[in-house]
Amino acid sequence: MANTAQARKRARQAVARNKHNASIRSMLRTAIKRVRQAVEAGDKTAANEVFRKATSIIDRVADKNIIHKNKAARHKSRLSSAVKALA
């Protein structure tokens, strides 16, 4: 357990930050799943629309350093190639 006031505050901040980051990470995973579901359904227009929204979410999460920029690029690349394969 934290002994100093500073350490106690840091522990409180870490809990709050963890909860906030977890919700953002969940939003990211949901966006990726929606694109994959649209691709599996074979709906090209829906897949393009959901992919556009997912790209925005992926970029936002990477800008906040919740995921690494390379991981964001990898997700976008794989989703993009899956959407393009529907043609």
UniProtKB/TrEMBL annotation:
GO terms for molecular function: small ribosomal subunit rRNA binding; structural constituent of ribosome. GO terms for biological process: translation. Residues 1-22 are annotated as: Disordered. Gene3D superfamilies: Ribosomal protein S20. GO terms for cellular component: cytosol; small ribosomal subunit. Keywords: Ribonucleoprotein, Ribosomal protein, RNA-binding, rRNA-binding. Residues 7-22 have a biased composition (Basic residues). It comes from the Bacteria. Pfam families: Ribosomal_S20p (PF01649). Belongs to the bacterial ribosomal protein bS20 family. Binds directly to 16S ribosomal RNA. NCBIfam families: S20 (TIGR00029). HAMAP family: Ribosomal_bS20. This is Small ribosomal subunit protein bS20. It comes from Alcaligenes pakistanensis.
